[in-house]
Amino acid sequence: MKEDGYALNSQLIREYLEHISRADKDSNLSASRVRKYYRDKGGIVWIDTKGVDGRPGAVVSTLQARLPEMGFSTKVFNVKQISDDLERMQTLNFDEKNDINHVAARLEYNLTKAYLRYVTGQHFGFINPDYVLNHFEAQDRDTAGRVRSYRHLFDVDMEHPDDAYTKAALQRATPDSLDDYMTRVARHGDLYNRLMEKLAAATDSQKRRILINMERCRWKSKIQPKADEKYVVVNVPAYHLWAVSPDTVIDMRVACGALRTKTPLLSSRITHMEVNPEWSIPMSIIRADVARHGGDEGYFARRRYYIVNRKTGKRVPASQVSAGSLYSGNYRVIQQGGAGNSLGRIVFRFANNFSVFLHDTSSPGAFGRDNRGVSHGCVRVQRPFDLARFMMEKDADEWLVDKLRLSMGLDPETDQGRAYRDSLPPGAKSPTLVHRLDVTPRVPIFITYYTLFQTPDGLLQSYPDVYGYDKPIGEALRPYIQ
After folding, report:
1. How far apart are CA 132 and CA 471, in angstroms?
2. pLDDT at position 29, please?
3. In the chain, N or C terminus with fewer CB closer than 10 Å?
4. 2: which residues sit within 8 A by CB, 6+ positions away?
5. Quick one: three-class SS letters along 337-404?
6. Residue 210 pLDDT exceeds 60
7. What tens digit of pLDDT does each residue of 424-445 get?
C-alpha cells in the first residue's frame, strides 16, 4: 500500500491539471495560454514516470536568482509553491491533502506557468504597450463623462507571443537547451545592462524609473537595423535625434508634439525626401487657427496659403471662401513651398498611420528652448541638410549634393555649384533643382520614449517624463515589482 502512494498515475494527473486550469483566474496572457495548453491535452512537460529530473530545479534556481536582480518579486511567479512541491516530489513527502498525483499536477502546472511567464516576458515584455499607452489619453467622452475612445499614441509594429511561440518555448524546456534559452531571452542590449547595473545600487525612489525603462528595452519592433545598416532614432523626452551608421553618428535637437498633440511612438523606414514641399494644412489646424480668417485675402497672401475645393480639386480665391466653408472641411488649405514654408526646405517621409514625418522648419527658435514640445505631432529637425546628406549614399555625386544645397537656399561647395549660382540674375532666388530624393536602401526610423537612455557615445542620460507615460507603465508593472 505504501508503494501505491508513490505511484504516478497519468490519468489522475490529467484530471487534476484540468481542474487546476479551470480554477485559475489569472488574467495574464501567459496564464491563458497555459490554461489553453492543458485543456487541449498538451503534453506533460516536467513530470515523467520516474518523477522529476533536474529541470524544475534549474527553473527555480533561475527565477530565485534573476527575478530579484530585475527588481521583480518571486510571488507573482509562485516560486515558493513550486519550491515546496518540488521538495515534496524529491523527498516523497506526501500526505492525504498532498498525494503524489495532486502534487505532480500542481508542480507541472505552476512550473509551466512560471516558465512561460518568465521567458515570454523577457522575450516580448511583461506588459503590452499597445494596450497600456493606447488606453492612456481619452479622445472622446459621452455626456456622463465616460470614455468613448482613446487617442492612439503607440503604433510600433511589435513582435507578440502567439501559439507557435508557446509551443516553441515549451520545446526548449529540455535538459540540453533549457538553461541556454532562459539565459538568451534575458539579453536586451547595452542600455538594459546599464540599467541592471544601476538598479543594483539604486535607492527605492530611483528604482521605479529604472524598472520602467528596463521594460521598454524588452519591447521588440519587427523593424530592426542590420549590423551594417544606417538608422535614425528620436527619443521624445530628450527632444533629440541620433542618425547612426557603422562609421559615424550625427545628432541634433528636435522639436516634438506638444502635450495636446503628442508625437506618436512608432517604427518605420524612411523612403524619400521632398525638397521645398508644399504643406497641406491638417483640418485640426485649419479649424483651430485658419478658418476664422475666412474671406481675408491678405491673411492668406501673407502666409502664401491657397485654397482648393476638395470635390473639384480646383483652386478658389480666398476672398470667396467664408469661415463657415473652411470649418465644413470642404476645402483644403495649402501653403506654397520654399522659404517661409512651415515645413522648411525638406521633409523626410516614412509610412505611418498618423501623417507625421521629420521636417525642417521656418521657425528655428524652438531649438533654443529646453521644452521643445511645440509641434502638432511631427518632428522638426535642427540640421536638416546634415540629415539629408546622411540619407544619401556616402559616395553620392557632389553636383547632386550641391543641387540639394542650392535648392535649400544654402551656399554651394563645388565649382559647378558656384558657377550656377553666379549665373543667376542679381537677387534671384535659386530654383528647386532637386524635387525628390529616394532613400535607398530605406533607413529605419524609431520614434521612442525613454526617460533613461544611453546615447550612442555611451552616456546614460535622464530626461523628464514630458508626456507622463512612466505612470501607466509603472502601474501595469506593479504586480511584478517587489
Report:
1. 10
2. 87
3. N
4. none
5. CCCCCCCCCEEEEECCCCCCCEECCCCHHHHHCCCCEEECCCEEECCHHHHHHHHCCCCCCHHHHHHH
6. yes
7. 998 888 889 999 999 999 999 9
Q: List the grid coordinates of 174.
A: 529540455
Are 94 and 88 in contact by the 8 Å Cβ rule? The answer is: yes
C-alpha cell at 150: 482613446
The DSSP output letter for 78 is T
Mean pLDDT of 210-236: 95
Q: Where are the alpha helices (DSSP H) in 24-159?
A: 29-39, 55-69, 79-91, 100-124, 129-133
Whole-angstrom CA distances from 251 to 238, 241, 242 are: 12, 6, 4
pTM of the model: 0.92
Cell output for 259: 502635450
What is the pLDDT at residue 1?
A: 35
Helices and strands, number each (H, E), in the chain: 17, 18
Average pLDDT estimate for 392-402: 95
DSSP string covering 36-72, please? HHHHTTPPPSS-BTTB--SHHHHHHHHHHHHHHHTTB
Average pLDDT of the residues in 196-219: 95
Bridge partners, 235 (sequence order): 240, 448
Q: How far apart are CA 324 and CA 347, in angstroms?
A: 31
